[in-house]
Amino acid sequence: MLVRDFMVADVVCVEIPGNRDDVLRILKRTGISGVPVLKDGELVGIITRKDLLRKAEETQLGLLMTPDPVVIRPDAPISEAAQLMVRHNIRRLPVMDAGKMVGLISVADLIGAIAQLRITLPIRDNYISKTYALWEETPLSLVGRILEISGYDAIPVLVEDGTLTGIISERDLIRHSRIEDGVEVSDFSNGTDDDEWTWESIRDMHTISYGISRIQLLPIPVKNAMVKNVLAVPLNAEVGECALKMRRARVDQLPVVNGNKRLVAMLFDRELIKVLLPDQQALRKN
């Protein structure tokens, strides 16, 4: 199973110099999590949803992107793609052949490969992650900060009685964001201790106003932005079964519930692809 068999050949890209707002529109329209950045047709970086949310006031693609991205060959095995994604904590690899980008392979593509393998290993042993949850009335701006601090791509949402009611992800944050323009004022006074009415104080007061443009999350509770029809799996679910559910539902994560249907963990696609690593292949054979 090679990279070329699962990569996407028709890749959405952006060019330098370019506009941050165009990237935001692409991510909103397509639901993808990142795009390669080209300069004069050559690959120079990757821009992701995380970059846009963490650098909300930055507009230059060259400063938003991660330069010199990790790449892979089309004839490499998908196990190598999984190794690189896990090692570098990334979700996509541009596929390069003779110095040219010929495609892109993502975590979602590897999930498709795992679904084909029909792996029967249980998820509870090696692949589920501890998690915490948000209350459904949590403001969306605070959700964005929590996702940034925690490093999670998605967090489950609960109602008052602790029942799982939804999932909020970076994709949902991008979908409920807007570009906000404004004006800020900077004070460049020399900090003199003179009385403010002296000529020296008046002379040394300097301010400058400048326009800013930032990505702003809408002022709404998380319940108005989350995905509500949550697909959950039990603790005894198998790897192949869960990969197939992710593939069909086009989701990056699945809540894991116990026999009482209570949330106990999360299954993230980035953890599930570890089943392709060489040290996991022995488990599959046994």
TrEMBL record:
One GO BP: methionine biosynthetic process
Superkingdom, taxonomy of origin: Archaea
Alphabetical keyword list: Amino-acid biosynthesis, CBS domain, Methionine biosynthesis, Oxidoreductase
Task: Name the EC number(s).
Answer: 1.1.1.205
* Membrane in keyword set: no
Instruction: Please provide, alphabetically and separated by semicolons, the GO molecular function terms listed in this UniProt record.
Output: IMP dehydrogenase activity
Q: Which residues form the CBS domain?
A: 7-63, 65-121, 127-185, 226-283
Q: What class of enzyme is it?
A: oxidoreductase
Show the coiled coil region(s). none
- SUPFAM superfamilies linked to this entry: CBS-domain pair
What is the designated name of this protein? CBS domain-containing protein
Source organism (scientific name): Methanoculleus chikugoensis
Q: What is the lineage of its organism?
A: Archaea, Methanobacteriati, Methanobacteriota, Stenosarchaea group, Methanomicrobia
